[in-house]
Design a protein that fits this description.
The structure holds two protein chains of two kinds.
Chain A (H helix, E strand, L loop, with lengths): L1 E7 L5 H25 L4 H9 L9 H27 L7 H18 L5 H30 L3 H21 L28 E4 L2 E4 H19 L1 H11 L1 H6 L4 H27 L10 H11 L4 H23 L6 H23 E7 L5
Chain B lengths: L1 H25 L7 H4 L5 H6 L12 E4 L10 H15 L4 H4 E4 L6 H13 L4 E4 L5 H10 L4 E5 L9 E6 L1 H19 L3 E6 L6 H17 L4 E6 L6 H13 L5 E5 L4 H9 L2 E3 L1 E2 L14 E3 L2 H13 L4 H4 L3 E3 L6 E3 L10 H13 L9 E6 L6 E6 L2 E2 L5 E3 L8 H7 L7 E3 L2
Parallel strand pairs in B: 1-2, 1-3, 3-4, 4-5, 5-12, 6-7, 6-8, 7-18, 8-9, 10-11
Antiparallel strand pairs in B: 11-13, 14-15, 16-17
Helix pairs in contact in B: 4-12, 6-7, 8-9, 8-14, 10-11
Classes of the chains: A mainly alpha, B alpha/beta.
Chain lengths: ~375, ~425
């Protein structure tokens, strides 16, 4: 009997990888083009609009860059943070929940701490967000270390708990609920006082938010942390084999808890920055970065620079797909999501095919 | 490290490939310096030059939807139909002049992004159909003074370029209530059910319930309206269960509704009772049960707004202003009566409709209509009778004028006599 086996290619050739990605993207764009053409839409025009995030022919093109950056920053920070825990083989899929609790904490500060200068208020918001998210992550890690609970399940469930908490806050019209707009008879989230709303650096009309600068600084910081510090080394050893780490005298439990705290706190920071730049919170504030971040982290092979590049590409894809659809009343954002899915799937498939190969093997026993 | 470099290079290469791919192939259609050119000539007009209508000029309509324009029923569907119908009426082509951002949640940041996109694409008027868009639209109206912002179901406006619009759907509800009242008389069953998204917490739902109840009781003074609140604007399973409870437990013979899907009508159909739908004629979904539905005809407003914005944008807030119309403008109505209705229904509805369109009478006043007589000789008596809540509190004295529009739109938070909420 002949049997097929999946075998990891011994050596990744750069050229091969390039070719596979390219083929994957071309195929997916081709499928998309057929779909678009069948709906009577010129695919090249659509793709042009998509890849330039709708800036062609746009009266306020700089607004699209601003909007794009607002999508990018939380995705970038969250992906980097998730990458930290994944490197340790700690399956934190609780990005959504950690983001939400961070956003809620930031909003608590924004609504209640008034009278302080804007930068201080915003820093307090971010600190509150980082602490709350970090402690949530720490709790999960604690249970993992002490009782060997399954972190995947715990973080997953926490996502839903946090989602329902924020939904409750957004729908409950009561006197104590300072999150809501007091002027509206129907419950809607209120706007932060001015001191809680982030400004940026004005470059002409373009407003470069501080969060973008912080995100860029974080890329460098995390890169250095992982590459050149003792902590970074410990994380990679724990990720490779926790037995080895233990044998080398590392306190594995402590490393897991510390890293998970940092990872979640970073997601909290992303949430604090997002809440502050939006000037409000909502049930959809995460923009699904907790989920998309997982894809980005893995596509970036858990390497910091690659995650940064990947998150830019994914954000272009997300923002661009949605923007492109605006012009064509016959297609809605569901189509944009579909196209996005096809492209992502193709890239992941290309990655898989480039990494693994099928080998025929003679099996001496039975098949 | 090598792996990393390769990956970065790959990604970069892939993107350039995409750009150049779409760029090359675009050559015949549009020149590659589109970026600079497009500042003035928008992408859309490039291909429309041949057949463009000079009258409409470069007028573009933007819309922000809570669901998708490809829905086949429900709230967004009704608005999308209204916008596209209105565009055809005023000489615009929805395929080219309509820009839509759909599936926009009630999240300020996302609404603002949608507005930026529509503004950048050159829209002259932007409609936002969901209540929660209110703060974002209010803010952006100041930022883009050249664009008209129009917000459904809201309460904010400014005096230059931001209005709100809604309609007297309670008038249509009253007419549907008449159909339900006749049915309950004929079946000798005073129990009428009503599946509602929300109860007294929203004026929009409770004014609808009250209008329906007053309509039903104008025919059958003993009618009892049992309201089941499902606490969401739309959830097919909950809508279904609510209708089942109303029919099985409360023995209701007619099911009214204020929720997105036709499920309450479908349940009524299954259980052999009757019903009044909402938003669209639900006779197709419930052929044996459906009487008539309170419906919106949003194009009545959208056409008015587009015409005003196209002729003189500056005077929009005086020519249109905050828009609140009803049966008289054709903004609300009932769907054609189905064969399931009792014979007297059409005549009674006509009488009530005429009274409301002529402005002689309105639903929430101190005068109540009372219908009597067989088919062919239906008459309406106008009786002075106070408008009372179901707790006996008097809201309008006997013979008094209707409550203010601000009450109907904003502060109404009570049920009238004959209404009970069951959950």
């Amino acid at each position: 009997m002949k049997k097929y086996h999946l075998v990891r290619r011994p050596r990744q050739s750069l050229r091969r990888l390039l070719a596979y990605y390219l083929i994957g993207i071309i195929i997916s764009l081709g499928i998309g083009a057929i779909l678009l053409a069948s709906l009577g839409i010129n695919p090249f025009e659509y793709y042009g609009r998509m890849l330039t995030i709708g800036m062609i022919g746009n009266k306020y093109a700089y607004k699209n860059v601003e909007g794009f950056l607002k999508v990018l920053v939380p995705l970038l920070i969250t992906s980097l943070a998730l990458g930290l825990s994944f490197k340790m083989r700690f399956w934190n899929i609780g990005g959504e929940g950690e983001f939400l609790i961070g956003a809620i904490s930031a909003a608590i500060v924004a609504f209640n701490v008034t009278g302080l200068p804007r930068p201080i208020t915003i820093i307090l918001m971010c600190v509150a967000a980082m602490l709350s998210s970090g402690l949530l992550g720490l709790a999960v890690a604690f249970f993992k270390v002490k009782f060997n609970t399954n972190e995947t399940l715990v973080t997953l469930m926490l996502n839903y708990i946090m989602l329902y908490v924020i939904t409750y806050l957004g729908k409950t019209k009561e006197d104590w609920n300072f999150f809501l707009d007091p002027k509206s008879a129907r419950p809607i989230f209120g706007k932060f006082p001015d001191t809680g709303i982030m400004t940026g650096i004005k470059i002409g009309n373009f407003n470069l938010l501080w969060s973008v600068i912080i995100a860029i600084a974080l890329i460098a910081l995390i890169y250095v942390y992982l590459k050149y510090t003792k902590h970074g080394y410990e994380i990679s050893v724990v990720g490779d084999s926790s037995a080895t780490a233990k044998y080398a005298g590392m306190k594995v439990g402590k490393i897991i808890m510390r890293t998970m705290f940092i990872s979640s706190a970073l997601i909290g920071l992303a949430a604090g920055l997002t809440a502050s730049s939006s000037g409000t919170i909502s049930e959809t504030i995460t923009n699904n970065v907790g989920w998309t971040g997982i894809v980005v982290a893995w596509l970036g092979k858990l390497s910091v620079p690659a995650i940064a590049v990947t998150s830019v590409l994914i954000a272009i894809l997300q923002f661009g797909c949605k923007t492109a659809a605006t012009k064509y009343p016959s297609i809605d954002s569901n189509f944009a999501d579909l196209l996005q899915g096809i492209i992502l799937f193709s890239v992941l498939t290309a990655d898989f095919v480039a990494t693994f190969t099928l080998k025929k093997k003679e099996d001496a026993k039975n098949g | 490290m090598k792996k990393l470099v390769s990956l970065v290079l790959t990604m970069a290469f892939a993107v350039t490939a995409c750009f150049s791919l779409s760029g090359c192939n675009k050559q015949p259609a549009a020149s590659s310096d589109a970026t600079s050119k497009a500042e003035e000539t928008t992408a859309g007009s490039k291909e429309t030059d041949a057949e463009s209508k000079p009258a409409a000029g470069n007028f573009k309509v933007g819309a922000i939807y809570i669901n998708s324009q490809n829905d086949t029923s429900g709230y967004t569907f009704a608005h999308h139909k209204g916008i596209t119908d209105a565009m055809k009426e005023v000489g615009l082509d929805p395929a080219k002049d309509l820009y839509i951002v759909d599936n926009v949640p009630e999240d300020d940041e996302k609404v603002k992004q949608a507005i930026d996109q529509l503004a950048g694409d050159g829209c002259n008027i932007i409609f936002g159909i969901s209540f929660g868009y209110i703060n974002a639209m209010n803010e952006k109206a100041t930022e883009y003074p050249d664009i008209i912002f129009s917000h459904a179901t809201g309460y904010m406006s400014n005096d230059k370029n931001f209005n709100n619009y809604f309609g007297r759907i309670y008038q249509a509800r009253y007419l549907a209530g008449i159909a339900a009242g006749y049915k309950s008389l004929a079946l000798k069953n005073d129990n009428i059910g009503y599946v509602s998204a929300w109860g007294t917490e929203y004026a929009e739902t409770c004014s609808g319930i009250n209008g329906f109840a007053l309509g039903a009781r104008s025919v059958n003074p003993n009618a009892k309206i049992h309201v089941y609140e499902i606490s969401t604007w739309g959830d097919q399973e909950k809508e279904r269960q609510a209708a089942q409870v109303l029919i099985d437990t409360y023995k209701c013979c007619v099911i009214g509704q204020h929720c997105d899907s036709a499920q309450p009508q479908i349940v009524a159909n299954e259980k052999g009772v009757f019903g009044c739908g909402y938003n669209s004629d639900m006779t197709n979904e419930a052929p044996k049960a459906h009487l008539t539905a309170a419906i919106w005809n949003w194009s009545a407003y959208y056409a008015t707004a587009m015409k005003a914005a196209m002729t003189d944008k500056a005077s929009f807030m005086t020519s249109v202003g905050n828009y609140y119309q009803g049966l008289n403008a054709g903004l609300v109505d009932v769907s054609p009566l189905s064969g399931n209705c009792e014979p007297e229904t059409a005549e009674a509805i006509k009488i009530a409709r005429d009274l409301m369109t002529s402005g002689k009478w309105d639903v929430f006043s101190g005068v109540k209509l009372s219908f009597s007589g067989a088919a062919g000789s239906v008459t309406a008596e106008q009786k002075s009778d106070a408008l009372k809540t179901n707790k006996g509190e008097e809201k309008v004295a006997a013979g008094g004028a209707s409550v203010g529009d601000d009450v109907i739109q904003g502060s109404m938070n009570y049920y009238v006599e004959g209404v009970t909420q069951v959950n």
